[in-house]
Amino acid sequence: AAKEAGRATFRMFEGAMVEEMQARIALEQDLRRAVAREDFTLFFQPQVDSRTGAFTGAEALLRWDHATRGMVSPAIFIPLAEQLGLIGRIGKWVLTTACREAATWDPHLSIAVNLSPMQLADPRLPRTVSQVLAETGLPAERLELEITETALLANDEQALSTLSELRRMGVVISLDDFGTGYSSLSYLHRFPIDRIKIDRSFISGVATDQHSATIVRAIAHLGTNLGLKITAEGIEDGDQRDFSALYGCDNLQGYLFSRPLPAEKLPPAFAGRTTAPEAA
Ligand code: C2E
Ligand code: MG
Ligand code: MG
Ligand code: MG
Fold first, then answer.
1. What global pTM score does this model have?
2. Ligand 1 close to Cβ of residue 46 (< 6 A)
3. What ipTM does the predicted assembly reach?
4. Which ligand 1 atom sits nearest the alpha carbon of residue 197?
């Protein structure tokens, strides 16, 4: 009977695996088609200056506008796109679309674009970025590229030289989700970066959890002393905003200020100064 039960369990398990694989293959086909048709949309989440409350720019967040699944989260399809070798094309589309949009904004505002580790590992990245900047007319200083600690550690030499080249061009480099990876605070000074974004998982606890508060203070303190700028991400309430501002985060992002929005829903402050039409 135990053997019978074992076989039944195995068949069930096997069935679940087959289903999972079929679902995955369907998703793969969908993603390939989406890339070919560029069925993607960028949302933009505004960021604010912690002292003045004024907008400083926005982060571009990718959405897959799927016919039946609705808006698919990048957390689901970015890893798949990497495995399928599609991230290069998607990443180029994101960069171009984000820069083209930001070029229409008020010139004080910047745009942050997320890079996957595979994009950072590609030695052609600096050339791609300079082409996109030339094509869209966005000044390099208004482009911020977000990378993760894992991307830095995985590629090492290649990644470091690529980042240095991007910074020489004037592009701002920020380290996303800081605190969730493996790099220690003592390595920070070795990375060619301008900004760190403290991960939402620490920010969410600053008002209620002593450990989160201590970690955020330590990251902000050391980062600032190393000459880095600090963003707090995932700010959802006034306590988190006040704490982050008090302990040295110059830039804030989170639902308290705004959810990610389609370009046309961005606040009026984003509108570029339209030049008055020439009097005929
Ligand atoms: P991320 O770069 O850390 O982006 C922040 C994520 O936190 C976004 O999720 C954003 O919608 C969410 N968020 C912002 N404020 C709040 C808040 O106050 N509360 C909560 N609960 N969440 C908040 P999203 O858009 O689902 O993106 C998830 C991740 O997918 C991003 O994390 C980023 O790693 C990746 N991603 C997004 N767009 C791209 C892209 O164009 N390329 C690449 N390679 N990765 C991307
Ligand atoms: Mg990001
Ligand atoms: Mg982040
Ligand atoms: Mg995050």
1. 0.91
2. no
3. 0.98
4. 3
